[in-house]
Amino acid sequence: MNGLAQSDSAYLQQHAHNPVQWWPWSAESLEAAAAEGQWLLVSIGYSACHWCHVMEREIFEDAECAAYMNAHFRNIKVDREERPDVDQAYMAAALALSGQGGWPLNVICLPDGRPIWASTYLPKDRWLSALAKLVEIRDHHADVPGPYAQKLVDALEGAALPASADGLTAWAPEAWPWTEDAPAWDPDHGGLRGAPKFPLPALWSSLHRLPPKTPYAAAQAHSVKTLRAIFHSGSYDTLRGGLFRYSTDAAWHVPHFEKMAYDNGLWLRWAAQIFSMSSDATDRRAFEATANWLLREMQRSDGLFCAALDADTDGKEGASYVWTEAELEAALGSPRSAEALNLLRTQGPTWEGSHVLHWHPLEGRPSEAWTSLLDVLRPAALARPLPFRDDKSVHAWNAWIGVGLLEGALHIPAWKESALGAAEAHMAQFGPVEGRCAHVSYSGKPAQGWAFLDDLAGSLALCTAAAQLSLDPRWIARSEALLAYADEHHWDGHAYLYAAKTQPEPAFLAQYDWEDDVLPSAQAQLARALIYVGHLRTNPGMLERAKDLVARAANVAASPAQSMSWWSLVPSLAPGTEHLLLPASYSHPVRIPAHWWLWGPAEAEVPPFGQVCHESACTLAFETESSLHAYLKSL
Question: How far is CA 100 from CA 24, 83, 262, 323, 459, in A?
Fold first, then answer.
């Protein structure tokens, strides 16, 4: 047993019995390496990662590989879900070194943590060959690695904080990058072109925060097409519920079978937004099937949500979700199984001898025969064993599930109690509690670690959604407390640092998180919270800081898909932007347009049906419900 045996992390526990002498990312292991002049081999992954499991079997459980690693390196295992700052820093290095990233991420570093080489999965012969070449450089060309590493660090530091900019002209509607039939879009299957193909609910949901008109309407229509294509495809678990992490092909047919909490929380938000505009039963099912799965299979007894389900069941990828002919026969009997096979064959080929339940996007809405097949097959699917579940709850991921439930409950009131209960459970665990916001919670233990910026971003989004659903002004006060916490622990005078200034054993590179990825940009979400609270509580300083962050973000060299969170903020920064204050605990049904988010509970007394204000004054007062609804229809 190595140095990981006492870890709470499921991923580190998976490696605790490897013959590799692993150490956790800790002061003890890092200080020992520095004192002894040892190079670091930092290996980063997560518990639900299929290729992490493959590399463990082929490399880290292999006696020859372990002996070589132990002889030449201080081997450090990192759970990227516990230390996303370390993961982000070394991923930035990997992308700069090779243009490729992913997990497991393996990085060779100098004793002080500066990286010089990085790779994802490699088979045994290439792994040992690469390590041998690096050892040869260390032993016979000792003057090379230091300057090489410093040149890389200098380049990464130079790109971390973009320069400030004057005004918001870069975000003007005439600069909008996605016009009709944008080259990046897949017109047949939805989403972006290429494979592997990620669903990216953070990207598509951001589009619906923009006005539903030119130039944004075409992208919003593509978003709707994408959600519906995925929901019926193999990349969504149509029997149990839940979104898989990504598709290995362009048609969403064969997924990588992990289910991640963050994907599914953001999917809830995306589906709720589209349902709020369409009132389509399919869009409601896309929300409710996911919400039911999360509450049934992923919620802990303390109200928090687990981080992930593994891709593998009993060592076989996708075994809980795919169907052999024999399994279909056992579940359906004859002749129903023969009918099912004929139907499945019309939707695509088998994968490794099994069928993935996939309705091809080019087929449009599923046929009655398809929905009937799913209804009959569902009991057998629910009786199958589940993959390993990582029961830790990650602050940001749990927050986005809460946000999705809360925003769905605005349009489907039956979810209100569950949504507000999840929000309260989240705040009770993740804080601030005794002056600290925590990052991760393990069952039965107090939440631990220092929150990262994406954690605070998720909690701020949750407070906004809870304030709007409950119309309880205490949620605005919680937002103000979180923004004050971010000021103290993350603000550096220019922008918000990703890792808290108090974070122990920091990564070699300070980062800010400007770009959207599978999570929306944390920096953009802080700007959104500043705009929201700045309007509802008349704080011009917050609005000015938000404008500066949006202007600075224009200098980040991001693709359109990585900048939609920023685009979605721009309309709310226009001069004269209005916001709506409703009486606390207002109980009348009110339908707010999906793109308009500057509304919430008033702190002081307002007219019985609300009041419209802008930065410096309040204007319209609503004395009747019909006058309020007329205003909302005009937006």
Answer: 25, 20, 23, 33, 31
Q: Please give the Cα distance from 498 to 491 (Å, whole number).
A: 9
C-alpha to C-alpha distance for 148 and 154, rounded to whole angstroms? 10
- CA atoms within 13 A of residue 469's CA, in its CB half-sphere: 29
pLDDT average, residue stretch 472-484: 97
Residues constituting the chain: 635
> What does pTM read for this prediction?
0.95
For the segment 244-270, what is each residue's pLDDT rounded down to a tens digit?
Answer: 999 999 999 999 999 999 999 999 999
Q: Where are the alpha helices (DSSP H) in 511-591?
A: 522-536, 540-553, 564-567
Look at residue 334 in the predicted model and tell me its pLDDT: 86
Tell me the C-alpha distance between 145 and 110, whole Å.
8
- 62-91 mean pLDDT: 97
Question: What is the spatial distance between Cα 324 and Cα 329, in angstroms, rounded to a whole number?
Answer: 9
Element (H, E) at 44: strand 40-45
Rg (CA), the chain: 25
Query: What tokens does 79 get?
Result: 């759970």
Intra-chain end-to-end CA distance of the chain, in Å: 63
One-letter amino acid of 107:
V
Tell me the Ramachandran region of residue 124: left when phi exceeds 0, alpha when psi lies from -120 to 50, beta otherwise: alpha
Pairing of strands 579-582, 599-601: parallel
